Amino acid sequence: MNSVVTPEIREVMEAVHYRPAVSIIIPFKSKINLQTEIKHSLKIAADKVERELTTNFSEEISSLVMKKLRNIINDIKLDTNKKSIAIYVSPVFEKVLYLDIAVEEKIIVDESFEIRDLIYSKKQLNKYLVLLLSGKEIKIYLGNSTTFIRILSHTPESVNAYVNEPTERVANFSDTSEYKEVLMEKFLHHIDHELSEILNVYHLPLFVLGAERISGHFKNISKHAETVAEYIHGNYENTSLQELKELLKPHINQLKIDNQKKILNQLEEAAGSKKLVFGMKEVWHEAMNLKGRLLVVEKNYMYAAQHSSVKDVIYKALAPDDNFSCIKDAVDEIIETVLGNGGDVEFVEKDVLKSYHHIALIKFY
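^ thats the sequence. predicted structure below, dont judge the formating
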């Protein structure tokens, strides 16, 4: 799990809580005139932040934070390969991060930074492996929502590399077709061995693309049948990377649906073994007592809360705009606590957890 908490995310998580903590998340809505568009969006966001700061904080603190924020905006260099930008500023901390997916615009002034979108961005990269098979060669790719990278193989990527091996000479076989079959099987065994090494590094679902005959042959000899998410039959030797991405989209979406079902099954199993709590107050209580192994939350669910006299008890906020007594998003605090204690977080679509009051926690014990 901890791979999702990159050093940059951890830096934001571990920043000293110092009010006001300003979080600005802006999606890149288009690639045309991106610099102008984002500068304009950030100026509007900065104006909103300034109004809230001057209303609720001293002039000295407001001026300090706004100076830092406007300097960041003026000096910003956009990464056009990303889809959103997150800016974090407080009197004692500042950080700019780029996200791999487009998220909803957020402007939050609170006592801690909003990290949900950082975690969600990493979770939604949808990494997977692609094995492209043909009668002549293989290609292996590492794919995600934004990139498609070829993995260099130690195994020869063409079946022709095995033609001149002494044990496989045509003279040993009654006909050429038998020779070709043995050659192909040897080739596929080498590919499967190579996959063992790759899957030890990348614990990811695998899509196998190729003609039905060769895919079936590979399926029969492979030791990695359980890892294969799907076999997609067809001739893709001359398919471009962009065409491969489009081809895989519906299969990736189905993978998300299947993963969501697995998560719901985990919740049911945890409930049966008395390790599940759900609903905001109960989840907060167990998370703050460091019992959270897996937090499952609807991706857009937010909960404004009031502090109580004890750390592990909160109440629903009666006045969400009261900056001095209200936690603007208690879900984000739970995410940070669960991750910081070695747990994991999964996001699901809206209303998937309706029967669990939109948030659930599987406990370590």
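The longest strand covers residues 21-27.
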